[in-house]
Specification:
Layout (H helix, E strand, L loop, with lengths): L2 E5 L2 E4 L4 E8 L6 E8 L6 E7 L5 E3 L7 E6 L4 E6 L8 E9 L3 H6 L7 E2 L3 E6 L1
Parallel strand pairs: 2-11
Antiparallel strand pairs: 1-3, 3-8, 4-5, 4-9, 5-6, 7-8, 9-10, 9-11
Length: 128
Amino acid sequence: EVQLVESGGGLVQAGGSLRLSCAASGFTFDDYAIGWFRQAPGKEREGVSCISSKEGNTYYGDSVKGRFTLSSDNAKNTVVLQMNSLKPEDTAVYYCAVGPSLTFVAVVASHGCAYDYWGQGTQVTVSS
């Protein structure tokens, strides 16, 4: 059974930083893509960042490039999203998710990885 448990959300002022962690179990990192998507009230789901094992590339959505960094520890089955220079528009519920490993071209074309499983989410609120 795939389990994804997020932690690290909270309230921060614009320009601040937050670190989200995801503890994953029930699957093999080597065969999957894992990352984060977010959803704000009234908005569509947005791919934030993911790592796909097929080619080892890391995807970042255009709105977070240069500010967010995704890292993974396969030995510990954890992924961490370091979020810097946060903006009010980053306010959303952030979900850790896992899905099939795709080529990086496919991930970019789809504006993010495809996901089959995700956690309960963690709220990130950035005040202006």
